[in-house]
Amino acid sequence: MQFIDSSSDITFQSSDGIFFHLHTKYLKISTKSSLLLPDCTCTSSAPEVVPLSEAASTLEILFQFCYPKCHPDLEGMEFNNLILLAEAVEKYKVFSAMDICKIRIGDTLPQHPFDIFVYAVNHGYPDIVEVAAPLVVFEKSMSDILPKLPSELVVPWAMYHEKWHQVARDAVSYYDTWKTSFTVVEGYDGRIVCAECRLTSVELDGFVVCLLRRFGGDLSFLKDLVALFTSSKFCEHVARSFFSWHTSIEENIKNIPKFREPAQSESKDVVALEPLSIVADTEPDITIQSSDGVPFQVHKLNLALSSAGFAPSQFETLDEIVELTETSTTLNLLLKFCYPDRHPDLTTLKFDVLGPLGDAAQKYSVYPAMNVCKICMRKLLPQHSDAILAYAARHNYPDLLDAAALSALKIPLHELVVLLPTHLVIPWVQYHEQWNQVLKDALSHILELWDNILRCTSRSKKLHPRVYERLLLSLNLGGVASLLDLDAVIGASGCCGSLRLDSCTTWRESVEKDIVNIRSFGNFL
To answer: Which of 102, 164, 419, 488 has a CB 3.0–4.6 Å from the CB of 386, allowing a cystine?
Structure first.
């Protein structure tokens, strides 16, 4: 988007010298920040130039959220650019960009936990704080973290960090209990061996030295205890005891209280109606009434500047009531996206609330709500895949359409066609038939391999027919949905190691190649 409109009335200059010519009327319905809405006392006819500390690459995206056009989706944005944008969004209080930045940053976890933790703490996103906190414990020391925290969180973090250290200390001290939980004897060469198998039981003391070396104030070893174990050589009897140790540590980790529990949100089955935020000193100049008879007094200017679907010609005066087909629950959420204030958090909404809101946002082109609704819809998958499939098709979201189509494959064909809108039934049958053909080919390939094994006289192949039998059973019972998780299919078959490397691997590669060649559902619309 090029910000060079000659009708602009304010100009911003980036830190690298690029000018952006904007309109204050759009800024006023997007932000409350005095940094973007300076009290201009300039009498010159030329627009005021306001210097900003961000680079042009950040401001170019930021300002797009201030205009009534499709907003950037931010999917796939490089993290360093995303965090710069997110910080600028919070700094300038660009409310229409806050939720999508928060969602996209949260989606990058477990990468960049420290930067994300600091961002979430500073801007009040407790759900992200909860997920990032344990990752930060593994990555950073107390001295790294405490200077980044608000003063009121210093003591809580120290207490939280100590809980993790206690788990680590318990893990190391459990060694004595672990060592005596199985029987060992001294071998002929003086080494400690397992009494049951007479194999070297692993240089247990060496394992603990490794554990202590990994610990030494560093908690990262708790992230992957299994990797620590497999780096040593244990017999199966010692291994059983190890996994008992491992389980006890995992239980201790689960019992660590969460850092800064998220505020308990109210039930989202019924969304409480709260007064709409008023952006201007002027009184509301139009009344909108929901399908269930609830009136909303709002500003025509906000509706016109934040959306393309609320045409000013629809609304005359406050005396006239404009009746809309949406419920009060939907309108109460939707209209809040038209005002410069924190927008509703949609990430915890149930589908029966989010679905109508997403359709209303598209119907009235309320741009600040459209992308957030789409992203939250995707997070609900694989639940409600049929309804989300229809939503994505209605509003031309090909990425969501393909994701929903994969989830919908888990619903039997005869059940799904009843749930879909009529115009999607034939395309779905055509799409489903591709998967069905891959399934048929996969079954045929297994039967061919089975016939070859039955003709083989080698004793090493004796177990294989039973494996193929289980493969056939898993695929037949699971239908096309089983093709979405070949790991589970192969695991259920009891595949032995040699088979994984030979014929089973060849079969899997053949199936995966066929799946890659399947056309997406959108191609049939």
So the answer is: 419
Is residue 279 predicted with pLDDT exceeding 50?
A: no
467 phi/psi in degrees, rounded to 5: -65, -45
Q: What is the pTM of this model?
A: 0.78
The 8-class DSSP code of residue 312 comes to: G
What's the CA gap between 483 and 222, in Å, rounded?
Answer: 34
From 128, 135, 134, select the one nearest 111 (Cα to Cα): 135
User: Is 415 a domain residue?
Assistant: no
Does residue 253 sit in the same domain as residue 282? no
> At residue 268, does pLDDT exceed 50?
no
Q: Which domain covers residue 16, as residue numbers?
A: 1-108
pLDDT in tens, 58-68: 999 999 999 98
Structural domains of the chain, count: 4
Tokens found for residue 347: 């990430």
Lookup result for tokens 């598209």: 362
Cα–Cα separations (whole angstroms), residue 203 to 231, 322, 454: 12, 80, 46
Taking CA 27 as the corner, what is the angle to CA 23 and CA 32, rounded to the nearest 5 degrees?
150
Q: Tell me whether residue 155 is in a domain.
A: yes
Tell me: do 129 and 240 sit in the same domain: yes
Decide which of 50, 78, 108 is a domain's last residue. Answer: 108
Asked if omega into 382 is within 30° of 0 (cis), the reply is yes
Give domain status of residue 353, yes or no.
Answer: yes
Angle between helices 95-107 and 79-91 (to 10 degrees): 150
